[in-house]
Write the structure tokens for this entry.
Amino acid sequence: MLRLPQFSVETPSTLEAALGLLADHAGRALPVAGGTDLLPNLKHRLAEPEVLISLADVGELRGISVGADGALSIGAMTPLDQVANHPEVLARAPALAQAAGIVASPQIRRMGTLGGNVMLDTRCRYINQTHFWRKALGFCLKKDGTVCHVVAGGQKCVAAASNDTAPALMTLGGELVLRSKAGGERRMKVDDLWKTDGIFNKKTRLDELVVSVHVPAQRPGHRGAYGKLRERESFDFPQLGIAVRIDLDGREVADADVALVALQARPLHLKDVADTLRGTTVGETSFRDAVDKVAERAHQQCHPLPNIPGDADYRREMVPVYVRRTLLSAVGLGQRPVS
Amino acid sequence: MAARDLHGPNPPWAKGFSVVGQPQRKVDGLSKATGEAVYTDDIALPGMLHAKTLRSPLPHARIKSIDVSKALALPGVHAVITGRDLPERYGVIPWTQDETALAVDKVRFVGDPVAAVAALDEDTAVRALELIAVEYEPLHAFLEPEDALRQVEPKIHEDKKNNVSKHVLLDFGDVDAAIAGADVTVEGEFGFHSTTHAPIEPHCAVARVSPDGVLTVWSATQITHYVHRALAKVLALPEQQIRVIQPCLGGAFGGKSDPFSLEFCVAKLALITGRPVKMLYTREEVFYTHRGRHAMKLRYRTGAKKDGRLTGVDAKILIDGGAYSSFGLVTTYYSGQLLTGPYDFPTYRFDSTRVFTNKPPCGPKRGHGSVQPRFAFEVQLDEVAEALGLDPIAIRRKNFQGTHTQTVNGQRITSNGFLECLAAVEAASGWKERRAKLPYGRGLGVAGSMYISGTNYPVYPNEMPQAGVQLKVDRSGLVTAFTGGNDIGQGSSSVVRSIVAEELGLLPEHVRVVAADTDLCPVDLGAYSSRVTFMVGNATIDACRKLRAKIVESVAAKWEVDPARIVMALGEVVDLDDVTHRLSVREAFHLAEARHDTLGSTGAYNTPELGGKYRGGTIGASPAYSFTAHVADVRVDVETGRIHVDKIWVAHDCGRALNPTLVAGQMDGSVYMGAAETVMENHAVSARGLHTGPSLLDYPIPTTLDTPEIESWIVESIDPEGPYGAKEAGEGPLHSAIPAIANAVYDAIGIRLRELPFTPAKVLRALGEQAERVESRRQRPVQAAE
């Protein structure tokens, strides 16, 4: 078995204590939520923290509640499995429930958390490997090296955002509640979280923790769905992830949004989705034509790189297919989630 | 001389079977299910050190120097060894021994073992590896067999003339004339990729040296006997001083058949340090150690008459062997020798070349050497049927070779239930109503195959039995059977238990089986080539019959009756003609021990003389062949290119099913593995010789959700020489799953896929080409299914 590096473990039982520890060990510590992604990464020597701060005992980070305004508040340490099966999430944010329910495998969804999935490190076929393998390759930009094996001569890491829940939250206008000892609490839209840098693709600070995920109340005619291209029906990270929001007024589209993941370092919003779909009527050719148009735009706008497993050309070919299928799924014309 | 299947398929006493043929639990089923089973890595001995292997980061390089001084100086490190400490060559086939435990002067693939460290714990050993300085001179890496054939230097093995590992060209009859005289000839090229075994238990070995110098090695091996011999050779120790034990094993599938570097390293490190030493491979190391399915490029030419009768088959095969020989000599023969059934080939030729490349070495994986040619031929046979306008099942029936016959390459066929297999899958799948009639995107495909139940080629030449069994009787009524046969999860120890219980009239739980311990068990050649049920089973019957004769004779003498009247079953001994005569088996044991002294017996099995009278004619010659037919039901998503294998019907002729639960389990597992290789798995290296993803995340094996529904039909053609008529079940049911899927895809979307694996991207590309072809003929474009 691969060995973990040596580190010490702190197990605070309050958020305040956790933030204190994070501040005390700034730069030398990493928080661990479910650990389903971090521990394999440590075995691969992708990070070498001196201290792991376990959030397992911080009860205030768990739970799902609905505000008076109908907004969802989901504690960062809430297991993905609970997010996926919670009646309020299923009713108010179906795309998020579907995305959370299709992450990895059942066991991992019981350990892995929503906050952990949002904060998931980027992935690449050249980085999520053992130290021996990476050394034999000559290492890479993201860790220990100076070259990119995805883009010849590339100077910027293109490891791919691979978190299924991120695009779902983006289409829902989700926000993160972040807190640090020094900075106190702040809110950041999930849309604003990302940087186009595969080494670390988020704008959060090292001494900051995700406390909860906030999903504002959606319109009455809200529809959502998630689609995921992957090799197997379980376990696998997305080779393409597509979240869809369609707000209906009767059968007419009032607003819509599509966001994608597993392309490059950051998840993307598709452009011109709302303008194309708005005013069309579900069940009529106007809607089908608009869906085809959005799918075609997606094909033009998305350029998967050979960064994660899966043939990059094939992944690009699948962009319009999955965009179309997920849009249709959202309004109930297909199966869901799409995989 | 060993008993050569003298016992016949039926019990000689007047009753039916009481254990054989009934579903029985595995001997180790409960201990595995409850976590009590002791695997090699569960062994922990006082003072035990942990060892790790340093591996080559380069696919092909000369080792200029190795400096281990810093590693040795690290506190906690007890020993460091390199190739110089274990220079003796080994290899499972005596004529092609080209491996050393650790690289001597050269490395031949990324992952080739270079040095090993024994330390107080794994972490220290890992740190020590980082302190070993190896200076390499990189050499040109041969990553494709064509490249290795074209260019000889720098040779991968310097004592060879070139990079050819083995070449076999065998001609049976005038193939060219037969094909020239055919009404239809189909010719085509096929590609089979490399796949690996992916057993859940990684390789592991533990060694201990006793104060009197006896070396004990526990290893997750499927062939204890060959490990025993190889350890003696490499360590230059007398065989009597070495004991090899196989603990409970977590899957092998052929991947634990060779002697491996870690077995020699732990032994040597234990000898040096005087402490027990353990080495457990990481999952990554299992991928480098490999010995999986050989990638092959295959060209077939098949001729047939209008009525579908084959006239000749001509094959040319290029085999990518990876860096070492392993079982490659046998693989090369098997690639041709095992295709001559269940169909009659009037003429046949194969020309197979195995080439070394700088990749993880290939070896035997479930269906060794014959899965790849079976794929190519069964797809081509479908094309022949289409060209002649015949139903794919009809053409297979038409060419059935029959029972008790001989193949064109000199193999003796005895029982053969292939027609029953075809009939079973034809009926179960609704073939007649559904084939070629399903909506576009859905299809059915059929294929057939055969496989060996062991071979009479004993790997190293000798006249001794291939299987031996010893029985020991306890006064408690317990019988212990000692067998060298390796239970690797296939259930061989359970088969031995069932046979002993049947023969001696015991409840199965009153038979214990001690297996795969070279100090305790008679030699058996191990779990490979699907030989165990047939050979160990026959040896067990042989041992039981000798013991039973003494017991029956003793009871008969007491009752003063004819021994033929006595029956032993399920713990009791009774007189068929006088029900007042009744004893427990335990009491019968006491009577027999009083009369004959301490009870015990030995039994053995050896194959009869088999095979063609030509060089290599015995390789692939088996005392009995199993036969299989598959029908696959697939759905192709023409937008995504994804092939969904919805269902596979498999019918397998295993002779008598000694334990139908175990047979069905082997059939299900074989179909799972075959389907996985068809649409998913791919063991590959990148352009720099580095494995594309040595993990169970990057090398996807199907989850339960990806597994087709499997319906298994057991066909029992009672074999005249098998134990109670049994044949193999562990490997045969894999073969034709693959071409059945390929042929089903053709039925679904009209595309012949000839290059495995059938990835969605490949299917989409083929659909695109098909659409172009169709449009160029100005026909209606193919409609996409919703």
